[in-house]
Amino acid sequence: MAWEWSHTPEAYQAAERNLRKKPLGELSIILAEWKAAEPDEDGCTGFGQAQYDSALKQIEADLKAGRLHKGAICDDIWRRMEEQRTCTNGGFEAWCCPFGCGCHMVSFG
């Protein structure tokens, strides 16, 4: 079970700061997970391994070519996090990915 965000503005600022501290490789994986969970042409959501693999490959290529940078990845992930607004029970950690993977969370503190 998960909770919806209900924190102070300072807590949201801390969570965003903590997201931006994550290593680039982890951020790339998180963004690829978001892209793999986007609705398909039928409007269905879930996780598509092929979509994930393709998204991660594209993100890595864009980073290497200079078409993408860490700040833009963080901005995209943070926007998606704000839309989803999901955190752990007790409100201690915000989900960074659409699935609440334990390793893809950041503290509000």
Quick summary:
Helix content is 52%, strand content 9%. The chain is built from four helices and four strands; from the N terminus they run E-H-H-H-H-E-E-E.
Summary tags:
4 helices, 109 residues, 4 strands, mainly alpha, two-stranded antiparallel ribbon
Task: Write up this protein.
By secondary structure, the protein is mainly alpha-helical. It has one domain. The protein has four helices and four strands, in the order E-H-H-H-H-E-E-E. It has helices at residues 9-20, 24-36, 49-65, 70-84; strands at 3-4, 86-87, 93-95, 105-107. The strands form two sheets. The chain has a two-stranded antiparallel sheet with strand order 1-2. Strands 3-4 form a two-stranded antiparallel sheet. Helix 2 (24-36) crosses helix 3 and helix 2 (24-36) crosses helix 4 (70-84). It is globular. The chain starts with a strand and ends with a strand. The model has no long low-confidence stretch (mean pLDDT 93).
Write the layout of secondary structure elements.
Elements: E1 3-4, H1 9-20, H2 24-36, H3 49-65, H4 70-84, E2 86-87, E3 93-95, E4 105-107
Antiparallel strand pairs: 1-2, 3-4
Helix pairs in contact: 2-3, 2-4
Outline, from the CA principal axes?
Answer: globular
The secondary structure category is: mainly alpha
Strand content: 5-15%
* Largest sheet composition: 2 strands, antiparallel
As for the number of domains, it is: 1
The portion of residues assigned to helices is 40-55%
Distance separating the two termini? 21 Å
Radius of gyration: 14 Å
Largest beta sheet: what is the strand line-up? 1-2
User: How many strands appear in the DSSP assignment?
Assistant: 4
Alpha plus pi helix count: 4
What does the average pLDDT come to? Answer: 93
Order of helices and strands: EHHHHEEE
